[in-house]
């Protein structure tokens, strides 16, 4: 294989959830891999050292040192890549357009409700589920009571445990699907405040959530599958979390990256 991207792509269909976390980290941080030791990757992903080492051996390396040398040497050989330039430009566009089109009245309304909620509950499926888990982790770092679910099969039962004093945040790029209709109808009937985070302003979620926020999403397509750039979602989630923390009087400094990107064990998925 010519580089880490090609190597991981050749194994992608065999990765489990834990392996996917490590693979995503390596893909997103290959240019800075010199800065990371094995413990850093474990802290950033919430995956144990032993699991990371097994993953490294599964993709053909004797250990982390050999993997790091491979990434450094292939990145150096490649130089500037037009695809990388496209990703950088698209990410910048997604963030700027999300900022330009975000309704700050709706955002502030959502923050106000989150600030007074007894708990935030994040729900998403697939890649949106990964974002829900990450948002939950950041709430945990900030000392905000929070839970998440990323499994359709679990949410039906878990949703009945959500109380009117809590806020449900539903993440879905398309904002449509049976997994939304079937479970959220019951949520609406129980008058639970719901924040929809979706890129589709005409979607069922956008029309039925208590308030909706619309980050931009664009990306690359592989046949019928779409690989989106979700930087706009990160922006919205961080605004909700930091806005909630500020409203609650939680002290933090904006120049301290560890407040949102720090290590620690990832809290597990839970139903209460």
List keywords for this structure.
two-stranded antiparallel sheet; alpha/beta; 13 helices; 7 strands; 2 domains; Arc Repressor Mutant, subunit A; single chain; globular; five-stranded parallel sheet; Rossmann fold; 272 residues
Write the layout of secondary structure elements.
Elements: H1 4-11, H2 17-29, H3 38-45, H4 49-58, H5 64-78, H6 82-101, H7 104-116, E1 120-124, H8 127-142, E2 146-149, H9 152-158, E3 167-171, H10 178-189, E4 193-197, H11 204-208, E5 211-213, E6 218-222, E7 225-229, H12 231-247, H13 258-261
Helix pairs in contact: 6-12, 7-12, 8-12
Q: Indicate the low-confidence ranges by residue numbers.
A: 256-266
**Structure summary, number of beta strands:** 7
User: What's the domain count?
Assistant: 2
- As a whole number of angstroms, the C-alpha radius of gyration is 19 Å
CATH topology of the largest domain, what is it called? Rossmann fold
The chain-level mean pLDDT equals 83
Classify the helix fraction into a percent range.
40-55%
Order of helices and strands: HHHHHHHEHEHEHEHEEEHH
The proportion of strand residues reads 5-15%
- Strands side by side in the biggest sheet: 2-1-3-4-5
| Overall geometry | globular
CATH superfamily of the largest domain: Glucose-6-phosphate isomerase like protein, domain 1
Task: Briefly note the structural class of the backbone.
Answer: alpha/beta
């Amino acid at each position: 294989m010519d580089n880490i991207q090609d190597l991981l792509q050749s194994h992608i269909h065999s990765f489990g959830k834990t392996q996917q976390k490590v693979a995503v980290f390596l893909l997103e941080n290959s240019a800075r891999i010199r800065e990371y030791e094995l413990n850093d990757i474990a802290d950033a992903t919430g995956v144990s050292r032993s699991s990371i080492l097994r993953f490294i051996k599964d993709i053909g390396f004797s250990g982390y040192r050999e993997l790091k040398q491979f990434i450094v040497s292939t990145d150096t050989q490649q130089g500037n890549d037009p695809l990388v330039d496209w990703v950088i430009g698209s990410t910048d566009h997604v963030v700027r357009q999300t900022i330009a089109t975000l309704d700050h009245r709706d955002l502030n309304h959502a923050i106000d409700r989150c600030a007074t909620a007894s708990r935030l509950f994040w729900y998403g499926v697939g890649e949106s589920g990964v974002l829900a888990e990450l948002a939950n982790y950041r709430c945990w770092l900030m000392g905000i009571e929070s839970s998440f679910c990323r499994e359709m099969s679990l949410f039906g039962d878990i949703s009945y445990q959500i109380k009117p004093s809590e806020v449900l945040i539903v993440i879905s790029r398309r904002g449509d699907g049976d997994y939304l209709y079937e479970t959220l109808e019951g949520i609406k009937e129980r008058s639970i405040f719901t924040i929809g985070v979706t890129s589709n302003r005409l979607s069922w979620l956008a029309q039925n959530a208590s308030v909706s926020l619309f980050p931009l999403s664009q990306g690359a397509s592989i046949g019928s599958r779409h690989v989106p750039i979700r930087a706009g979602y990160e922006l919205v989630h961080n605004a909700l979390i930091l806005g909630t923390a500020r409203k609650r009087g939680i002290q933090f400094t904006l120049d301290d990256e560890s407040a949102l990107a720090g290590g620690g064990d990832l809290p597990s998925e839970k139903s209460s």
